[in-house]
C-alpha cells in the first residue's frame, strides 16, 4: 500500500502553527498533518543563532526520516520548506509549495530586521496589548503572546528578525523535490512578477494578500493539490 506523505505546514515570521487552523488540512489530506511552531515562535524553544538552515534542522528533528513529507510553507516558512527540500536534513521531501516568499529586500529593510533582532522584547501590562503588538510584527490583526516578567510579550524571539535575506535561486537549484512557488494576487511583499523571475508559472491566488492562509483558507486549500 502506498504510504501517504506527512503534510508539514510552516508559518511565517512572528506567527505560529495555529495560523493554519482555518485550513482544516486534516480533512483534506490523506496522510498525517503537522503544523509546528518554528524555533523561537509560539511555544517552541529559541535558537542560539537564527539561520534558515538552523530553522529547517529543528523542523526535521521532529519528523520521521523514514516517512515522506510534503511541505507547505508561508513566507519565512516557505524558505524553510525550500531548505528542507535540499535533502540536507535527513528528511525525504517529495514536494514543496512556498507561499508568499519575499524575494526583494532593500538595505533599509535588512537593517530594520537586524535592529529589531538586537532589541529586547517589549513587555506590556496586558495580554491584549501584547497580542496587538505580536499582530503588527506578523502583519495580522493579532498574534500569540506569552507571560514575561510580570507582564506579556509577543510569543516570538525577536532575534529571528535578523535572519537575513534568503538565497532563493540557490535554494531552488539545490531542491531535490518538486517545488511550486505561489503568492496572493494582492501580496505586496511577494509580488507575482517577482516570482516570475525565478519560475515561469507561479500559482496566483485571487483576491488575497500576504497572509492568504489566514485571510481565506479556502483559497489556499487549492495548493494542497500541488503537493499530492
From TrEMBL:
A molecular function (GO) term: hydrolase activity
Record carries keyword Flavoprotein: no
UniProt entry keywords in alphabetical sequence: Hydrolase
Protein name per UniProt: Lysophospholipase, alpha-beta hydrolase superfamily
One GO cellular component term: membrane
Presence of the UniProt keyword Metal-binding in the record: no
Pfam family, one: Abhydrolase_6
PANTHER family xrefs: HYDROLASE, PUTATIVE (AFU_ORTHOLOGUE AFUA_2G14860)-RELATED (PTHR43798:SF33), MONOACYLGLYCEROL LIPASE (PTHR43798)
AB hydrolase-1 domain mapped to chain residues: 7-221
